[in-house]
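pasting for ref. prot 1 ->
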Amino acid sequence: MRIAVLSGGRSSEHDISLLSGESVRAGLAEAGHDVVDVRLARDGTWSSDGSEVELRAGRGLLRADCAFPVLHGPFGEDGTVQGLLECLDVPYVGAGVLPAALCMDKVVFKDVLARAGMPQVDYRAIREGDDPAVLEPLGLPVFVKPARLGSSVGIAKVSEPGELDGALRDAFTHDPLVIAEAMSSGLEVECSVLGNRDPIASQPGEILLAAGESGWYDFEAKYSPGGMELVVPARIPEAVRERVRELAVETFRLTGCTGLARVDFFVEGDEVLVNELNTMPGFTPTSVYAKLFDASGVPYAELVDRLCRLAVERHERERAYRH
C-alpha cells in the first residue's frame, strides 16, 4: 500500500511525534509499503517532499491508500485531525473522532469509566475560578494534571497543602480544565491493545523507574534513554496479569476505540485500577506500545502493517453504511 505517515503537529509533543514518525516509516518500508512522509509544522502547515499539501474534501491525501497519523496530544490525538481525515475520505490508523476526543479528555474518560463501574482511583475535576476545597476529599498526595494534554506535560505531585496553588496555576497555563487524582501506591503496569471488532491484548509490562527519577512516570522518565525499564511480563501473579488484559480490552471497547491503544493501570496487590487510555501512544525506540507486542510475538514491521490493514478494514466497513 501507499501510506502517508503524519508526524510533528502543533502540540508540545511535536518532537516526540517526529521521532515516532521516523520509526513508523522505517517499519512500514520494511514491511514492503510505499511510504509518504507528511510533516505537520508547529503552525499547523502540512508539507510533503518540500511542498505544502493541498487538502480538498473527498479527494483523499496524496493518493495514499491509508494515513498513519503518528500525532500526540492536542491537534493530533484529540479528534481534530481524525475529523479532517474523515472529510478527506482516507482510511487512517487509530481511533475515530469521538473515541479520540473522549480519551484525550481525562475527566470525560474517567466519568465514562465510572458510569460503567470500572475500577479506578478517586478523582475530581476543577476549573479556573473553582474553590480548591473541592479537592479535599482526595487527601494527599494527589496528582494535578491538565485534563487534555499527554506525556505528563504540566503534571505535578502535590504532597503538602502549600504546594497545591502552584500546581494548579501551572496546570491552568495548559488547560482551563484540570483533574486531580488520588495517589495509588500500586505498580504501574501498561498493556497494548490491537484490533477492531475483536481486539487482542499484549502481555502487560511493568514500569520500573531508573534511580534518581522523580518517583513517578514523568516526561523525562518516558523519553530519556535509561529513564525507565520495561519488564515483560509484569511481575504480578498470572491471574492479575489476565485481569489487566481483560480490563484493557474492556476499556478499549467501552470507549469505542479501533486499531490500537495503550491502557495504563495501577496494580495494588490483587486489585487492578484503570488509569488512562492513550489512543496514539509513542512509537519511538523507547516507547512501550510496540515493545509489549514484540514481547507478545508481533514484531514491529508486522505491527505497523497490521495497523494499516485494520484502518482500511474499518474504512470499508463504515462506508458500507448509508447516511
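and prot 2 ->
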Amino acid sequence: MRIAVIAHLKHAITEAFAGGLEMHTHLLTASLRRRGHDVTLFASTRSDPALGVEAICDETSLLGTGVAEANDVAFFREHHAYLRLMTDLRRRTFDVIHNNSLHYLPVSMAETIATPLLTTLHTPPFCWLESGMRVSRGPVRYVAVSDATAQMWAHVAHVGDVVANGIDLAQFPYQAAPDASCYLVWYGRIVPEKGLDMAIDAARAVGLPLRIAGPISDPDFFENVIRPRLGDDVVHVGHLAHSALARLVGGARAALCTPRWEEPYGLVVAEALACGTPVAAFRRGGVPGILDPHCGALADPDDVASLAGAIGKALTLDRAACRRRAESHCDAERMVDRYETIYREMVAAAKPQAIIPGNARAPAASVAMSAA
C-alpha cells in the first residue's frame, strides 16, 4: 500500500526521542516500510531521512529562540504547514492517510480529500483537536491507544477501534537480574504532568536511590522543583539513546510511573516490563490496562505514601513475568498487524462499487472517487 503518515511538528521524529509520540511514529513508519509498504512521513525538519520524510515545517519547539510571541509564531507555522499539506494531499495518490499529528486541521479538512483518513488519538481531549473533530464532516476513522483513552473521547466522536501502542522488544532486551547496585528508575519528559517530584519523594520514603533519565522539557519546573531534590541518592543522568536507556531500565529493581494526568497509554511501562523490570505506578489512564498483579503494583494517584507501598510490592515481583507480559501485550508487531488490517478495511470500503444494471445513479463512493 501507499501510506501517508502525518506526524506532529513539535519535535523531530528521530532518536533520541523527545517523547513517546515521537518514538511511536518512528517505530510505526519504520515497521511499515520494512513490511514493503511505500510510506511517506510528513514531519518536521531533522526527522530521520530513512523514514521517507517529506519535511513540511521546522520543529516548532525551536522557533521560540529569540522570537517575540514565540507561541503565536509556532501556532501559525504549524497551521500553515498542515493547511499546505492537506491541500497538497488532494493531488497525491495514497491508499490511506494515517494521522498522528494531534492537530485540528487534518480532521477538519478530511472531507476535502478522497483518500481514507485514520486518526489515532494519543491524548485525552483538548480544545483544539476536539473542536476540529466536532466540525469535521469527512469520513474519518478514529483509533485510541487504550480503552481509557477511547472512553475519554466518546463524547466527541465514535472511536471504533483500540490499538495499543507497541514497542520493539529487541530494543529493550530482557535482563534476568538487576544490577548489583540497588536503584529505582524514573524516565520520561521532565514536565509537571509527569510527576517526577512525587517519584523522588517516594523513592526517598523507601530508602532507595533513584536514577532519572529524560529531556528537561520544562526548565522552570526542573530548576524550581526537581533540582532542589537532587543529591547523591537522586541523580539525573541525562537524555539517553535507546541502548543506554535499556541498560539503565533493565538494571533497576523497579521503575516508577507517576502521571498527574490521565496517561493515554504508558510506553515507559511497556518498556520497563520488556526489560524485566517491575513497575510501581499511579492508577491513571491507560496504565492499569498494561499492568497485572504479576508485573506491577498500582498506587492511588498523587499519593506519595501509596506509591511507596506500591514500590515495596513491585520489588517482590518476578522479572520473567514482567517480560512475558510485555511479549503478550506490548509487542509492536501486533500493533502493526492491527493497523495493516484497519488500512485494508478502509481501502476496501473506499473502493467504488460496481453500478447495478438498470440503476440510474452510481453509488456515492463512485461519484466521489470520480470527482477526485
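The two ends are 19 Å apart (CA to CA).
Residues 62-67, 353-372 have pLDDT under 50 and may be disordered.
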